Amino acid sequence: MRYRAEVFVTLKPVVNDPAGLTIRGGLHTLGFDSVTEVRAGKYLVLTLDETDATQARARVDAMAEQLLANAVIEDYRIELEPVGEPVATGDASA
Amino acid sequence: MVFPGTWSDRDCAHAVLDVLQEPVRYIDHREQSVDDLELVILPGGFSYGDYLRCGAIARFAPVMKAVADFANRGGLVLGICNGFQILQEARLLPGALLRNASCEFRCEWVHLRVEQSNSAFTLDSRPGQVLRIPISHGEGNFFADPETLEVIERSGQVVFRYCGADGRVTADANPNGSLHNIAGITNARGNVVGMMPHPERACEPLLGSDDGLAIFRSAIHALARVPA
After folding, report:
1. Domain span at A78
2. What's B135's domain CATH number?
């Protein structure tokens, strides 16, 4: 099955986020005074072929642990959805 | 060490080869071994475009396994700027480097107070000595969780702090928001050091300062003292 995984990487709450603070300042300048906090992060979209959703989630988890997020400063959240069968490869249709 | 995007490799080679007259060879990121070397320098730059996070991709370069083995055996490793970020991503040094608190790239002269002479790269310096060395980075804001910070402070792993010309560590002297004004740290063993300032850019009076030489000289003296 083919899956689409969205990975949201954000700074841990304890980590100061200068970019978020700067964006908040910009919003305040524009008059959006109700904004009390902005946290900036990264959004990654992966497409992968795995046997089932459990396996797909485990693989993306491993990717986040090893590379996509730095556990010293970042948290991550994964959202996974099936997007259909993988495109056929090899000579099965020949 | 040369990764795609490294930019200070020739400046480091100039400091060690031309100024200090010690042999140098460039290490390619695809190499499998660094066992012929006594000192490995990870210079500054933007390895792999700093994609994802500074140093995150370089950490998985083929040569980094060899560098980790080399460091774990006690080999001397110096990470400068992007090299410091890579050593943290590789977990050879604690903490992480966040975006500068100002959100600006800072390229300027700073003063550093030497905190410890127990690392291989500060052997020739005395605690309290002030070095004038430039920085050049956008992400040098040292961070570690409170427990880690306490450990590295207590065990004397902070080797450099940003300070004023008089050696006083103040908020005004902190160019990037680093916790405790930390500019450079060592591992517990003292053989791996990472620092944001560029000692190779302060290695001759012509460049405005030769204070950076003390760091390279210390490593050479450390090697002479304990044969590899």
Report:
1. 2-84
2. 3.40.50.880
Does the residue B4 lie in any domain? no
- In the three-class reduction of DSSP (H, G, I as helix; E, B as strand; rest coil), residue B46 is classed as coil
Structure token pair of residue B104: 């600006």
Across chain B, what does the average pLDDT equal?
A: 96
Please report, for the domain that includes residue A14, its CATH number. Answer: 3.30.1280.10
Residues of B in contact with A15 (CB under 8 A): 98, 143
**pLDDT category, B227, cuts 50, 70, 90?**
low
- Residue B200 among the catalytic residues: yes
Q: Which residues contact B219 (CB under 8 A, 6 or more apart)?
A: B39, B76, B78, B120, B121, B123
Q: Does A68 touch chain B (CB under 8 A)?
A: yes
- The tokens 């001759």 sit on which residue? B204
- Please indicate if any CB of chain B lies within 8 Å of the CB of A42: yes
Selected catalytic residue, list B12, B81, B163, B203: B81
pLDDT in tens, B66-125: 999 999 999 999 999 999 999 999 999 999 999 999 999 999 999 999 999 999 999 999
How many domains would you assign to chain A? Answer: 1
Residue B114 resides in a domain = yes
Cβ within 8 Å, pair A72-B145: yes
Q: What is the ipTM of this complex?
A: 0.83
